[in-house]
Each structure stands twice: as structure tokens, then as C-alpha cells.
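User: Can you recover a sequence for this backbone? Please restate the input before giving your answer.

Assistant: Of course. Working from this structure:
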């Protein structure tokens, strides 16, 4: 990796990747670091009143010449002024759009947080007031179903990290929302969407019966501990026996969410002919979320890697139609993915529009832009493309801290 160096603005050429040594607010460009696309940009840079810029050889198409006397074609002053004014206007509009998107993300995050609180309350009531708990769950699922079925313009957003004592609730909501969304995409009935929704909410409730010393253990579990934790689906069913109003149709998918088609799952080792379509669907989504968030004491994988592992390694274990549907629905780069752009910059996928899967909204690292003002942009609008997906650990620490990849991947659904 070559070190960045200062070069004179007189040496700038189309294809050089530079960093401007001025505040983000003091120039008309969307980023403080970028590859020069045309000669007009060079003239605008010269008009900023600076003598030097930082040159990045690794991200540039060419090396700048050593002479300070490059003959750059001139753009007349009137055209240049109009171009600069247009760029400033576009930058202002972008900032407004980004602030709106951030407000929308915040709103979705608040809705998700409220759902976590509701779920915690419902679980606490299962023992003491089971009828209330089930009725509240049915109301929550009914409201979510209304949103899913009545909107053709849904987005998936990356949510805040789960607190240590809330991982079970975040995981259960992730599974619930993705299962319901997939059921909708598969053309299932409203009743089936709601059944898999309420089953998803309570599928891991049995883990509350597993000692925290096992759940939070940092070293590999012993064989007896593994066998004990593998009973949690049946513990969930036993827990729900207290609530006689809980839908019977949802119980099989709770009992079977770790069963695989080839009989290698648990706790009963059932095969495909014993697993209904709801059980097969929740098994796919549950495995995906566990891969992302490091269940069973394994380190979490980036979302795009988790999808790749599902596709490659689970062909005999999980319903391949449902795996393909999940990949198609989330896109190649789901929320939470760390990516490298065609510009050489790093970014994190914040949200995807389910109608525009190839063009997610991303937050881009730029050391000259304050973190709180980091632009959330659409790939479609900026003409950028994704080169590759990266594990968060591959990022330099300062970029990692700036983008703040979530340790736990939680997904919120909203109407765009």
C-alpha cells in the first residue's frame, strides 16, 4: 500500500483520487475524498483557494506528473460558476434527503425498540397472565401483518445493537419479521402470515429456562450442556402450555425450528416428510439470523457471507426454495453488510428498498466528514457500484469505529 502524499493542484488530472484539505462545508463536492471525473472539477478545486491536495495512488487510475504546468482545457468562467452553483444546490438537496432518511431510520428504530419492550412484557406475562400475553402478541402480529400486506413499498433497515439481556428478543423479532415478509412474498394467506408471526415471537421462549451460565458461556459447551440447550424448542412448547389460548397451529413451527430436512437437526431429528411448510420456513430464517449473530458460541458472520453459507452448505438440510427467496428478498448485500465501492471507499449498507435491491442506501466513510454528518446515499443516485463485501474485522480501526458495524444484526421493516 503506497502512502498518500501532497501534490499541487496544478498537477491534478482526471483519474487522480484526492482528499481535499478543507472542511466538508467549504466546498461543493459531496465527499471530501473522491476520484476526479472531469476537468471542470479540477478548475473548481483550484477555485477553492488551496495550493495542495492529498493524492492516493492506490485508488487512482494514473500517477500525477511532476510538473506544475499541465495544460488543462479551460472552462469559461460563466459555465464554471453555473456548475459550482448546481453542485452546491445538489449537495444541499442531498443533505436534506440524507437527514430525512436518517429521521426515517430513527423512527423505524424507535418502533423496533417499542416492539422489543412489548415482547419483553408479553413474555413476562405468559406465566402470570397468559391470556393477556397471547392477546397482546396477536395484536402486535395483526398490526405487522396489516403493514406488510397493505404496502408495496417496504424497506429493511439496520437497527441498533441489542443490549446484553435483550438478544433473545432481538433475535425473535428478526425471525418474526423476516418470516412474515417471506410468507407474504411466497403468496401465503393472511392466516399463515399471522401464524408464523406469532410462532416466531415465541419460538425461543424456552431459552429463558436455560441457565445464563450456559447461554453466556464464552468457551465451548460441554456435551451435557449442548444436549440441554438443544431441548429449548420443547421447553418453549412446555412454557406455552400455560397459555391455552395460544394458537395450536403455531406450536409445530416452534418445536421444529432447529429441525433439518435430512434428519440431522434437533431436538427430535425429524425429516422432511414430518416438517410442514411453516416449520421449514422458520428453520431457514432462524439459521440465517443465527449465522449473522453468532449463535451456539460461534462468531457472527457478515450478512452477505451468511446468505452464501446458507446457499452453499445447507442444500440437504433446508428448503432450497426458501433459501433462494431469502437471498432474492434481502439482496446480495443485506443491511449490515460492509462493502468496498468502485471509488475505493468503504461503506456500510443501512437499508434496502425491496423494489430496488441492487441499489441499497449506504453510509460512506470519509475522514473529512464528521461522523454525525456522514452521508447516507443511494448507489443508484451516485453511479457507484459495489466491488466486494468485507468482514468488519478487515477494516482499519478508525474506519470500523466510524461506520460502527453492529455486533448484533437486527432488522426493522418500514414503509418507505
Amino acid at each position: 500500500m503506497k502512502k498518500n502524499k501532497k501534490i499541487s493542484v496544478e498537477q491534478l488530472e482526471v483519474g487522480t483520487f484526492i482528499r481535499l484539505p478543507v472542511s466538508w462545508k467549504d466546498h461543493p463536492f459531496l465527499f471530501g475524498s473522491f476520484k476526479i471525473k472531469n476537468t471542470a472539477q479540477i478548475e473548481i478545486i483550484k477555485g477553492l483557494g488551496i495550493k495542495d491536495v492529498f493524492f492516493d495512488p492506490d485508488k487512482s487510475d494514473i500517477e500525477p506528473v511532476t510538473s506544475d504546468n499541465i495544460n488543462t482545457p479551460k472552462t469559461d468562467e460563466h459555465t464554471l460558476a453555473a456548475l459550482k452553483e448546481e453542485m452546491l444546490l445538489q449537495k444541499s438537496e442531498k443533505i436534506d434527503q440524507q437527514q430525512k432518511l436518517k429521521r426515517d431510520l430513527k423512527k423505524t428504530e424507535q418502533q423496533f425498540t417499542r416492539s422489543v419492550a412489548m415482547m419483553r412484557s408479553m413474555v413476562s406475562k405468559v406465566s402470570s397472565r397468559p391470556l393477556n400475553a397471547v392477546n397482546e402478541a396477536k395484536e402486535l402480529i395483526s398490526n405487522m401483518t396489516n403493514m406488510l400486506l397493505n404496502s408495496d413499498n417496504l424497506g429493511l433497515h439496520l437497527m441498533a445493537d441489542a443490549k446484553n439481556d435483550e438478544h433473545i428478543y432481538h433475535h425473535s423479532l428478526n425471525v418474526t419479521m423476516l418470516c412474515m415478509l417471506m410468507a407474504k412474498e411466497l403468496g401465503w394467506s393472511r392466516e399463515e402470515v399471522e401464524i408464523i408471526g406469532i410462532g416466531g415471537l415465541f419460538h425461543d421462549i424456552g431459552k429463558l429456562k436455560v441457565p445464563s451460565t450456559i447461554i453466556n458461556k464464552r468457551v465451548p459447551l460441554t456435551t451435557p450442556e449442548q444436549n440441554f440447550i438443544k431441548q429449548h424448542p420443547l421447553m418453549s412448547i412446555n412454557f406455552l402450555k400455560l397459555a391455552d389460548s395460544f394458537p395450536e397451529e403455531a406450536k409445530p413451527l416452534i418445536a421444529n425450528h432447529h429441525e433439518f430436512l435430512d434428519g440431522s437437526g434437533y431436538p427430535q431429528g425429524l425429516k422432511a416428510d414430518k416438517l410442514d411448510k411453516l416449520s421449514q420456513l422458520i428453520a431457514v430464517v432462524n439459521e440465517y439470523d443465527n449465522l449473522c449473530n453468532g449463535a451456539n458460541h460461534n462468531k457472527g458472520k457478515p450478512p452477505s457471507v451468511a446468505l452464501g453459507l446458507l446457499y452453499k452448505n445447507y442444500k440437504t438440510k433446508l428448503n432450497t426454495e426458501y433459501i433462494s427467496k431469502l437471498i432474492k428478498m434481502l439482496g446480495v448485500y443485506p443491511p449490515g453488510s460492509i462493502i468496498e465501492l468502485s471509488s475505493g471507499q468503504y461503506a456500510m449498507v443501512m437499508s434496502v428498498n425491496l423494489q430496488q435491491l441492487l441499489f441499497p442506501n449506504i453510509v460512506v466513510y470519509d475522514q473529512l466528514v464528521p461522523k454525525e454528518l456522514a452521508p447516507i446515499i443511494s448507489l443508484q443516485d451516485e453511479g457507484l457500484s459495489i466491488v466486494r463485501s468485507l468482514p468488519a474485522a478487515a477494516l482499519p480501526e478508525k474506519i470500523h469505529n466510524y461506520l460502527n458495524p453492529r455486533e448484533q444484526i437486527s432488522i426493522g421493516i418500514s414503509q418507505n
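That completes the design. Residues 77-128 form the longest helix (52 residues).
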